[in-house]
Design brief:
CATH class: Alpha Beta
Number of strands: 11
Number of domains: 1
Number of helices: 6
Oligomer: single chain
Helix content: 25-40%
CATH superfamily: Class I glutamine amidotransferase (GATase) domain
């Protein structure tokens, strides 16, 4: 499974890297993609991350899964990126998996990708999930779109993606390996 994990200035770094870590442990091929014109990204808590590549150097057809971490400013940057919006729309039209956490589901809502679906997000962003049935669950999967509420559910989101796109057994084994005992 090829995963493009997008990151922007202002993205929530732990939401991004926790999911990326879980997916890499499950042997997914994860590429961290900066939406900037350079690989350097300045995250929400003043941590600089150097991505693997930039959005200008990828072909979305190579991705099986697209993932967007939250962070208020990062999400606004995602929404303002026309190239990313086009990629998300194309991916959704092909019914390929998309995951978003915290504020980032609002970027999907802006594009109309959540219409008729169940979804979750960070409290206060529900009105931006246009057409979605908003739930307060930690992680929600409806069809090919999986959303999560916030940082506290980042590991759960990663594990859900492993469960869905590798196997429930692999997700269970990984959960045990990382000593994640939360009920």
């Amino acid at each position: 499974m090829n995963v493009y994990a997008f990151i922007a200035d202002g993205s929530e770094e732990v939401e991004c890297l926790a999911v990326v870590d879980v997916l890499k442990r499950a042997k997914f091929n994860v590429t961290l993609v900066s939406i900037n014109n350079e690989k350097l990204v300045h995250t929400s808590h003043n941590i600089d991350i150097i991505a693997d590549t930039t959005i200008n150097d990828i072909n979305i057809d190579d991705a099986d899964i697209m993932f967007l971490p939250g962070g208020g400013l990062g999400t606004e940057n995602f929404k303002a990126c026309e190239r990313l919006s086009d990629m998300l729309t194309k991916h959704a039209a092909e019914d390929k998996p998309i995951a978003a956490i915290c504020a980032a589901p609002s970027a999907l809502g802006k594009l109309g990708l959540l219409k008729g679906r169940k979804a979750t997000c960070y409290p206060g962003f529900e009105d931006q999930l246009t057409g979605a049935a908003c739930l307060h669950d930690g992680v929600v999967t409806d069809g090919s779109i999986t959303t999560a509420r916030g940082l506290g559910y980042a590991l759960d989101l990663g594990l859900r993606l492993v469960e869905l796109y590798k196997s429930p057994e692999d997700a269970k084994a990984l959960k045990a390996a990382i000593q994640y005992d939360q009920v």
